[in-house]
Every structure is written in structure tokens, then in C-alpha cells.
Amino acid sequence: MDIGRNAMLDVVSLTKSYANSVTVGPLSFTVQQGEFFSLLGPSGCGKSTTLRCIAGFETPTSGQIFLGGERLDIKPAYSRELGLVFQSHALFPHLNVAGNVAFGLAIRKIHADEIRRRVEWALDLVGLSGLGNRMPSQISGGQQQRVALARSLVLKPPLLLLDEPLSSLDLKLRQQMRDELRALQRQLGQTTIFVTHDQTEALAMSDRIAVLSNGRIEQVGTPIEIYRRPASRFVAGFIGQCNILDGLIERREGSTARLRIGSGHFLMARLPDDATVKPGDSVWAVVRPEDVTIGGTGTSEGGSPFTGTVRDIEFLGEDTQVRIDVPGLPSLTAAFKTTREAASRIASPNVSVRIDVDDVFVLHR
Ligand SMILES: Nc1ncnc2c1ncn2[C@@H]1O[C@H](COP(=O)(O)OP(=O)(O)O)[C@@H](O)[C@H]1O
Ligand SMILES: [Mg+2]
Hints:
Layout: E1 9-18, E2 21-31, E3 36-40, H1 47-55, E4 62-67, E5 70-71, E6 83-85, H2 97-106, H3 112-125, H4 141-153, E7 160-163, H5 171-188, E8 192-196, H6 199-205, E9 208-213, E10 216-221, H7 223-228, H8 233-238, E11 243-253, E12 256-261, E13 265-270, E14 282-287, E15 292-294, E16 304-315, E17 319-325, E18 332-337, H9 340-345, E19 350-355, E20 361-364
The structure holds adenosine-5'-diphosphate and magnesium ion.
């Protein structure tokens, strides 16, 4: 299998301006061979523009792009031989499924037997064996998106670029396709850049994620790193839900800090080894809702206890989310698995709340 050969992508100080104002960049990032790398950010932050520069549909204003050590950005789009799948599948309506998948091979003047073999291989990969004779209008949206994927994979591109490929599908199908796409990418070792505004999708699928805001990279990291150790307030707020509390470092003893928060409250936080905060620093304390524990005994050492009142309960099926008013603090959001035992803890509106020292992440303000 020749997929992924020498596929490392290097984007170096890429910028793109429209009408004299810089829209994207400067951006620098590297995608390793075989990696599933996501560009994640809100609508308008420059994800598609970045991808289009890599694909060759846009000319960067400055910077360079390398693939396998060779300059990519100086080649015309058609000779970059990358795989592309966009939100709208845009199949050729007058060609059947097999014809659509074969298209890229046919214009490369590959022998008919070889084309047939590779089209079968690609359709089998995406679970569409036997549907080669259907017309695009005779298959579902999910199947059309699979054809679009097969049409790219059949060319065995060194790099696959996906721009919100699942966002036109309904939720159930989107989740299924997410798993299928990821499994396929792993099976083939296909180096992939995946653009999405959906953090759940990015967290579930990626080896690494670059979080973008206003055309700049806020953080590059694994899903866990981005979730547990957000590099900025933007990342903390954009990825998952969280409580962000204004705090002041009062004391630091080795790896633990005592923060003053709200009026008259304290919060203990474990600091990473490389933390530079010192007493007197203004910080944000980031706490995920699932780490705000309601009731329960066994207050762990170093945890911070609060007492409050349950303001509202949102039942989300598997999970329950609760807003808790603690006098002198902004309201806290807590989330837990909906079990009978957990539900009993919010039976009375007056609750005790605990935040463990290891579950507080401190960011410079
Ligand atoms: N051809 C263009 N001309 C002018 N502005 C553009 C053009 N394409 C994109 N933009 C602007 O660049 C910004 C980033 O767009 P885009 O890369 O499509 O964002 P995203 O894919 O993250 O939603 C937006 O503000 C958008 O309006
Ligand atoms: Mg876009």
C-alpha cells in the first residue's frame, strides 16, 4: 500500500489576506505521516481558507507549505494530487457511482482493468460494494458522502483534506460516519486534515487538534491535552463546557496553589511542573462541570468545599447538569451521570459541593 508515503505536511508562517486585511495567519503547524489532524474553530476563523491554501485553490499571501519536504504551494492545484472531500459532496450527476469513483483514475490514463480493480477496492472500503451501477440520485446523502470519500481514496493521495464532510448529515448518521471514517483512516494510515467547527467531532476523531480563533492557532495538542490543559481562555471556553472563575494566587507551596475566588472563598489548585504563577498573580481557574462534585462524603485532602443551593436541573438523559448558586461566587455548573444515587444528592436544594485540587486548571489572566 503506497498511501501515506512521505506525507508529512509542514505549514510555515502561512498568511492569507483578502482586500488588504489579514484573514488567516501567520499560521505554522506540522502534520505527521499517518496522523488524523483537525483544524477546529468557530465559523469564520479561517479553517477553510487554510485548507484551500493547502489544496491550491487559494494562493497564500505569504509563507510556505511543504509536503514530504517538497514545496507544495508553488505547484498548481491539479498537480498536488491531494484527496479532497467537502461538505456538499458534488458528485457528477450524469455518472454512476463507479464512474464517479473512476473519474480521477480515468483522466490519469490508467489501464481499464486496473481502474476496475481499484474502484472495487475503494467501494468495498466505504461499504458500497455492489452499488457501482446506481446513479447519485438513487442513493442516500450518507452514501453520496461515502462515494465522495471513495473517489478521493481511490487515488491513494499522500494527504486527504476533509472540509466539514459530515455536517450535511443528520446526527445519527453523522456519528456513525464519524466512527467509520476514523476506522478507515487508521486502517489505511491515511494522513488526514479534518476541518470542523464541532468540538465533539474533533475530540472523538483526532490524533491532534489545532484550535483556531480569528485566523490564529490558539493551541495544538491531543484531545486530552486540549481538554485538560487548555492553553488559553478561548480554548477553555470553546472546548467542552467549563466553569471559569476569576482568581488571585494567594499562596504557592510547591505544586499547590491557594487561590482567592469571588468574595471570601478559596480554591486549591494543583499546578503543572512548568507553571510560572506566583502570589499576587491574577488567574482564571478552569473547572469542568464533571469535576464539580455534589454531596458525597470522603472529602479528599486538599479539596475545596462550598455550600450552595441548586438553582436549576437540566436532565439530558445519560447526564444531568445542575446549576448551583454559592453566595459570593458566580454560579457553578456541575454535571454527573444520571444514576439513582446521584439523583438523590440533589433531592434537597441545599447541597455541599467539592472541587478536587487536581481538577482545577490555572491560566494566567
Ligand atoms: N474569497 C474571499 N474573499 C474575501 N473574504 C473571504 C473569502 N473567503 C473567506 N473570506 C473571509 O475569511 C474569513 C475566514 O473564512 P473561512 O476560512 O471560510 O472560515 P471557516 O472555514 O473557519 O468558517 C471569513 O471572515 C471570511 O468572510
Ligand atoms: Mg469553512
